[in-house]
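Weekly sync, protein design subgroup
Attendees: M.S., D.O., the rotation student, P.L. (late)

Item 1: inverse folding check
M.S. brought a backbone from last month's batch and wanted to see whether the design step gives back something sensible before we order anything. D.O. pointed out we never logged the input encoding, so this time it goes straight into the notes. Structure tokens as presented (75 positions):
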């Protein structure tokens, strides 16, 4: 699936952004938290989306049936 590759690339870019913020000694700690929070929220959503897509790829639904993706989640 092409979308899985795009999500993996986006997750890698978010990791690089977080790393860049963490390694910047000129940014105060509280500012780092403020900068990283939205990035980490995006990462959480993308990670869940990636897990869902990989599950659907590995367990495709039968025709005319709901996918049941929520059944496998631990939430």
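Designed sequence read out in the meeting:
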């Amino acid at each position: 699936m092409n979308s899985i590759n795009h999500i993996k690339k986006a997750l890698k870019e978010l990791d690089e952004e977080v790393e860049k913020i963490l390694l910047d000694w000129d940014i105060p700690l509280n500012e780092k938290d403020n900068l990283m929070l939205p990035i980490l929220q995006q990462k959480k959503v993308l990670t869940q989306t990636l897990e869902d897509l990989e599950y659907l790829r590995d367990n495709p639904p039968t025709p005319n049936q709901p996918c049941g993706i929520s059944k496998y989640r631990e939430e």
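Discussion: Residues 2-57 form one domain. Residues 29-58 form the longest helix (30 residues).
Action: P.L. to compare against the previous round before Friday.
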